[in-house]
Structure formats: structure tokens, C-alpha cells
Amino acid sequence: MVIFLLMSSIIIWNSCGIGGRDKKSCVRYLVKNFSLDILGILEAKLENINDCTINSIWGRHSRDWYAVPSLGFSRGILCIWNPASFCVSNCSVAMNGRILHIEGPLSRFNLECMVSFVYAPNDGLLKKEVWNYLASFKNSVSKPWCLAGDFNETLSPSDRKGSSRISSFMITVII
Predict the structure, then answer these.
(1) What is the model's pTM?
(2) CA nearest to 40, candidates 130, 101, 121, 108
(3) Which of 4, 58, 60, 147 has its CA 20 to 30 A from that of 43?
(4) pLDDT tens column, 123-160
(5) CA 133 to CA 137: how far, in whole Å?
(6) CB atoms within 10 A of CB 76
(7) How does strand 77-81 pair with strand 38-42?
(8) What would the pLDDT profile of 22-31 be if each residue is shown by its tens digit?
(9) Considering only CA atoms, which of 93, 75, 80 is closest in space to residue 150?
(10) Domains of the chain (ranges plus CATH)?
């Protein structure tokens, strides 16, 4: 299990499949002990998601959710949030289900914001399309924006095996 971002009350997790009992138990522990406002689960690998599924993941705590279903046994983005602390006013999906945007006020900080969950492909050309979209999209965002996910990229050359290149597309989004 790898947690990619822990920022106050937002956790983004590439679960590599959230269907197992141990992973659901882990999420319930996080919800209970860290008062989560927003949870993004990447690579959820769930095609059919309903309230029963969400209860088994989040527990019986107050929640709303939006899901981009998996395609077979790959991909899928699931976002669950506490409506008392984050009131989602808009959800949108981009790049054929590889990006999920949610926006609304984060009441804990009295902050209108946007959170985008990204699950980028491994394929270089498809990944380039995601980066081009994000580079263009950032110009349309006028509120604080949390961009998080599995970009299938490395920031530091020392993190790569067999290559020292940093994607120029990643740099255009960061800068």
C-alpha cells in the first residue's frame, strides 16, 4: 500500500484494487482516526459501485461519493468525502476517465477549492496527452487546486531505474 499524498485531511491512495477486506479495513481506520474530509482511491478496480460498496469501504460515517468505474480489471477512480466538511458543488471526468475533478468549499479552512485525481497511463503517448490536458487545464483554474494521483512519472532522476529523463510535460504542469 502506498499513500501518495497526505495533506491535512485529504488522502490519495493507489490501492491497486480496493475490493479486499484488509484494504477496506485500512480505509475505515483512516476515516475513524484521521477525520478525513476527502479520500481519493486510484486503481479502485471496481466496475459496480453502490452505497453498500461505499459503506464497506468508508464505514457508516457520513459520506458522499463519486466513482469513475474500472475498465475490466484496470483503472477506476473513487472519491469519497465527508459532506459536513467538503460540500461538492461540481464533479467532472476528463481524459476518458483518467482524471476526476471535484470542487466545492472545504469548510475546515473556509476555502473554495478544486481537487483533481489523476491516474495516468504508462504508455508514453497517452501519458503525453494527459500532461498536455493538465498544462492547458491549469490555466482555467482560478481557485486553489490540489492536483494529486499516480502520474506514472518520477520527479527526481535518482528515482528512475534505467533512465535519467524527467518528462518535460510534467515540468509544464508544475511550473
Answers:
(1) 0.79
(2) 101
(3) 60
(4) 888 888 999 999 999 999 999 999 998 888 776 666 66
(5) 6
(6) 24
(7) antiparallel
(8) 877 787 787 7
(9) 75
(10) 2-174 (3.60.10.10)
